[in-house]
Sequence to fold (968 residues):
Amino acid sequence: MTKQVQELDHVIIRFAGDSGDGMQLTGDRFTQETAVFGNDLSTLPNFPAEIRAPAGTLPGVSSFQLHFADHDILTPGDAPDVLVAMNPAALKANVTDLPRGKDLIVNTDEFTKRNLQKVGYDKNPIEDGSLSAYHVHAVPLTSLTVKALQDQNLSRKDAERAKNMFALGLLSWLYGRPAEGTLNFLEQKFGKRPEIYKANVTAFHAGWNFGETTEAFSVRYEVKPAALKPGTYRNITGNTALAYGLIAAAQLAKLPLFLGSYPITPASDVLHELSRHKKFGVRTFQAEDEISAVGSALGAAFGGALAVTTSSGPGIILKMETAGLAVSTELPLIIVDVQRAGPSTGMPTKTEQADLLLALYGRNGESPVPVVAAASPSDCFNAAIEAARIAVTYRTPVILLSDGYLANGSEPWLLPDVAALPDLSQDFAFATQETHVNGDGEFRPFKRDPQTLARPWAIPGTPGLEHRIGGIEKADGAGTISYDPDNHDLMVRARQAKVDGITVPDLEVDDPDGRAKLLVLGWGSTYGSIGAAIRRSRRAGYQVAQAHLRHLNPFPANLGDVLRSYEKVLVPEINLGQLALLLRGKYLVDVISYNRVRGLPFQAAELAGAIEEVLSHV
Amino acid sequence: MSEVSPHGRLASLTLVPHATGLAAKDFKSDQEVRWCPGCGDYAILAAFQAFLPTLEAPRENIVVVSGIGCSSRLPYYVNSYGMHSIHGRAPAIATGLAASRPDLSVWVITGDGDALSIGGNHLIHALRRNVNIKVLLFNNRIYGLTKGQYSPTSEQGKVTKSTPFGSLDYPFNPVSLALGAEASFVARSVDSDRKHLQSVLTAAADHQGAAFIEIFQNCPIFNDDAFAPIKEPSAPGLIRLSHGQPVRFGPDGSLGLTYGPYGALQAVAADSVPESQLVVHDVTRDDPTYAFALSRLDNRDFSHTPIGVFRSVPRPSYDSLMAAQLEKAREGGEGDLAKLLAGNDTWEVG
Fold:
């Protein structure tokens, strides 16, 4: 049967099912096929914190949204064009996000009376007409999978488990995705268990063939490859990019990498990734708690390592005591905060940007710490290198902000030319007796470099530079204990001046014709959503400028001028206006906040609405 | 100097460069020592400074890390590398340093409040991991720096500023705690017995991995004479442990130890039982129950208080295991960054 092929410029698919249904794996594989096909893409996994919530319930629903296109895109998309619902819970939890007229693929086998009751459906929504606004494809995915595997001598349970591969096969056919990658992946994953491997491959093919032969799907879709910048690409999540950035930074600084960490969602994958790369000399230490994790890192920094600790908000708050000691002892230390929804435990698997003020001010005393934020999953790589540059050059703790969306979301990454990465080893040198001992034979561990105001990094094992450091106030230069009032005032100001003086690139503004009256200023993971919203607004004829902050402390030197050169400044944040507070306080500019704190990234449509709302008053 | 000599070195120093010719004065910093007159810390500092040259390690390869409290000021007075860190966190900081720098000899100076109260978690985990650090716990059974509140080793009913009606908590026995935390080396000494303290420090340095030493330390201001009953060398309750020797103590060594019911140790007149029933001290027993039983002899009235090495069993240290994993991973060469970044699934555009 020849199927009609319809060309689309972009598609948003959401796979939704029970946490045990393998939706994240299905999404990952479809993403990889899509990447290899050459579309631009962006993904949004969304899963419960519970490892296996009770099967078939709303809290147990796990989903994976993928946006792919024949042009460059910035976000995982606002609302799906296709929803795959593996059970009634997945349908109920997601169908309200599906715009009318869009495609809905449901696994009818799971719509049993009991499963319907579990989520409060009195009647079967597939049959009662309540889904008539959608283009429903009712497919008995489970029984078709079991039927395809009936001659394979598998238990019914094992056979049923392959239904996600049937769904993947069907969707891969529907959107013309190349299958080789998935088949190779299955061989790698299940090669040692031939019966499971065979079942998954058979299910995948059965799904593919079902699409081709059934009349339930009369149209296949085609999304042509995107014209991305030439080069070699891979797909990468934020946590992987961040781990790679740290490994790269250590190589570029010619320092051994030390990670002290304690498991926490959504940061643990950085620990997992780094623990695999001992070949690069990476030492990973899983500590007894968050405090020990950062403490061990500070100890390694004292010993001359590029020292890192990774966590999320509830762990970062515990690390702040040691961050203060790092400020006082002026040692390089990278503290990674993969932010999640708070306060307290909050929503561990959901994203948020509400740790900005914690990063800047969450320590006792005058305790300035540079803060750097990543803007997209692949940008976590660059942000990690920048955090390392600041830490080693200025001998200071640096807080690197990522978040749950960046951590687990993925996008194609144009691989950097390793030879072109910055040589961080040029930015600092360990102190030696020759370079740092005065004519009088004295070593002054707090004598500052006149340019960077950094103190010498004199590591144990260096003869002649024996010295003691600690959290007690130190005499300027000599570094010995000092309670002198004027010395304290001087040291407080010196530490502040060092951070204020960090070299930070000017903020670049995207204002195509220079006539915009509104600037939209963001930071962190909202880069994609803000960009997508601005494209929409510009297509609708509005003039809007965009700028995005990588450095939250110190701010770029031109930030005040940029803010004052626009009539209105809109600051969207996934918090209640933390950057806005800083901007108002520092620059006396009356910025307009736009805030949603739902544990999810912004939707481009809501931001475009906010932009147009502000512009209606200009 | 600076030749690594794996032979003839103390076991914790095999990867530390070798240096001779240092004296106690070389380890005195230019900082004025500021403890209260009569504080036991003076004696411990002097014993430590005189002991350090015997390590035959360069000054620059010795690091002293402390937490917060009176004892934790010690690093300022030792002319080596040092860090006076945060209350309770010294074992964590020292762990990161020792795990990444096997060429250093790392000493942790802590107190009963620092190590057993706010830093209890770090202490027990550093001990069970067997990180190559030497922990010197100055136990004065009181909070000194904050001016005299009861500590986790103060006796129950202790009347202090924060417990005018007597403290309610039951105290820790630090040696029992360390043994329960799977420590591979556990010892106890006394501030005023320099020779004994130095012998225990040497034994600790000769142990690869974490060593825990409780040092009874007198605080003349807030808890004076807390250890008076065992301060005299002839104190009847003092049990000097010596590996391979029968445990004898009391007047003319007339007392010994035998096993009582349920494996507890009990003091008996040595001539009242056959010699074969008297306990011979053995620090190398892998099963810590014997060392634990010894630690339980330590009564509040100091009727039986063992000092010396309780336990010293060989176990690979955390840092050496970590170094071995790295070495194995690098057998086939260093990592290739470009290869790492590319991963297994790439595609070309253009």
About this structure: The mean pLDDT of chain A is 96. The CA atoms of residues 332 and 489 of chain A lie 23 Å apart. Chain A touches chain B through 68 residues (CB under 8 Å).
